[in-house]
Amino acid sequence: MAANWAPLTEEEKSRYKVINKENLEFLMNRYNKVNRWVIADMIRRSAYHYPNKPALVYGDKTLTYAELERECNRTANALTALGVKKYDRVAILAHNTIHHVLTWIGCAKIGAIYLALNYLLRGKDLSYCVNHSESKVLIVEDALYDLVKDVMDDMPTVKNFIWSDQVAGQPPVSDRFQAFDAWYGKYGDTEPDTILHIEDPCQMTYTSGTESLPKGVIISNQALMAQYMGTIVDGQYDEDDINVNALPIYHCAQRDVFMNPVFWLGGTNILIAPDMVQILKNIAEYKATMFFAPPTVWIGLLRHPDFGKYDLKSLKKCYYGASIMPVEILKEIMEKFPGSGTWNYYGQTELAPYHTVLKAKDALKKLGSAGLGGLNMETRLEDDGFKPIAESGVAGEICGKGPHALMMYFKDPDKTEEAMKGGWFHSGDVGIMDEDRYITVADRKKDMIKTGGENVPTREVEEAIYKDPRVQEVAVIGVPHPKWVEAVTAIIVPKAGQTITEKEIVELCRKELAGFKVPKGIVFVQALPKTPTGKILKREMRVTYKGMFEKEQA
């Protein structure tokens, strides 16, 4: 304890005699530094075990755990000097950089709530998130300044703008910004003296807002710590792992399912941009042991002309998630990375985000499955009346409960209540459970196609089309149709140099599927629209192709 730590008063001593809520709160605050379990302590504890081990690699800069801990403390102290207090929001708009990591951990050390902004957003969409969250500080990467320059005056809650120059290397564009390095570098590296509890909120993420305004998901220390434990056990991470982080760390999948658990264990995190050649190069150069990507990125890697030029034998743990992996692609990963394991994580932002896992030992016998609830999670299917579905093979909404779950949607009690109805979080995804209780994700509710009175899971059609070896990628959507209401429509990217006809796809589907599931429309394109995390934007394609059947007669 600190030398100036005040001795107990007689009244305080009396609190040790009776166990009640008030006395326990006193004890948890009094001994907070001794017995707490929160994100803020993660890097310091790894620095205790591995002070000189590389913790974070970004470009030509490497920080050991001891160095990273000191830099995070400086950032925390710098935020405090700006007037940031516990529970205040700090927003950052940045790619995968050291500054981004320092901001996240720095916020955690003072109990501020970290908000990573999606750099696909523009102008008013960004200002909405900043204003709705009431962020006091906004950190802007130089390469992303154009996204916010026209709406900075529309962010009245922001009192301080910080400029991060780690991508473009550009100096601040105006005196409204403080340069990140000059700002935080002048503060000491002593850990802040802040009382923190596992129930405290620590991060905020805005959902995509495809059906309404984006919702601000508040996540607690508890949710993340429980999740880190689960990923480490379920995904078989260890302290010797070297992890390549190529997907944006603004997204909770890359940040909270991979980067942060690796920090907690004392492994090494490599930060790079989502470039195929860079991914291959960094796996080979650093002898990476683990890598996560959505199916679209795995497909891009496997199909890349440079794939065979790099020694990738170090990669023993292959993870996928964010969207459904075609079975044929999963088989190809297993073939091209012999001796490695494959894990599938499934979840939602609201579950911090991992909900279920298909472990490597089950990958072959449960092809296409999302697995079982994670270590600290329970999973079930519900019908439209919110009743559990016990029978195998019956579709229902995937629901989960456990410590990963969100605290709330900020300022939205109605949506929070709706999502948590009946004591379970409702995902909006449709799944089917087998006789072993393993979940297969059939579709998003909004992606399920209703054609001629029949339900068609888009995944089933996509799996059939992927059996054609000439198909690079495919997305199946429902398009308005005068007769069928919605027509099953396949948007296909052929492999380079390959030619496919509509007739061939239709014939393949007729062999694999019931007649009403066969696509009534087929479009060949050069690429599918995607988010920076590799998710295919089906909603965008539904807009693009909504009029393709208008001339057909009912």
Task: Outline the secondary-structure elements.
Blueprint: H1 10-13, H2 21-30, H3 32-35, H4 42-49, E1 54-58, E2 61-64, H5 65-81, E3 89-93, H6 98-110, E4 113-116, H7 123-133, E5 137-141, E6 160-164, E7 177-179, H8 180-184, E8 201-206, E9 216-220, H9 221-234, E10 242-245, H10 252-265, E11 268-271, H11 276-286, E12 290-293, H12 295-303, E13 317-320, H13 327-336, E14 341-347, E15 354-358, E16 372-373, E17 378-382, E18 395-401, E19 408-409, H14 413-419, E20 425-433, E21 439-444, E22 449-451, E23 454-456, H15 458-465, E24 471-481, E25 485-494, H16 502-512, E26 521-524, H17 538-544
Parallel strand pairs: 1-11, 3-4, 3-5, 4-8, 5-6, 6-7, 10-11, 10-12, 12-13, 13-14, 25-26
Antiparallel strand pairs: 1-2, 8-9, 9-19, 14-15, 15-16, 17-18, 18-20, 20-21, 22-23, 24-25
Give the total of domains: 4
Spatial strand sequence of the major β-sheet: 2-1-11-10-12-13-14-15-16
Name the CATH architecture of the largest domain: 3-Layer(aba) Sandwich
CATH topology of the largest domain: Rossmann fold
If you average the pLDDT, what whole number results?
92
Number of discrete helical segments: 17
Describe this structure as you would to a colleague.
With 554 residues, the chain is of the alpha/beta class. It folds into four domains: 1-30, no CATH class; 38-47 and 66-206, ANL, N-terminal domain (Rossmann fold); 216-445, Rossmann fold; 454-544, ANL, C-terminal domain (GMP Synthetase, Chain A, domain 3), CATH 3.30.300. The chain contains 17 helices and 26 strands. The strands form five sheets. A nine-stranded mixed β-sheet has the order 2-1-11-10-12-13-14-15-16, with helices on both faces. An eight-stranded mixed β-sheet has the order 7-6-5-3-4-8-9-19, with helices on both faces. Strands 17-18-20-21 form a four-stranded antiparallel β-sheet. Helix 4 (42-49) runs antiparallel to helix 5 (65-81), helix 9 (221-234) crosses helix 10 (252-265) and helix 12 (295-303) crosses helix 13 (327-336). The radius of gyration is 25 Å and the shape is globular. The mean pLDDT is 92.
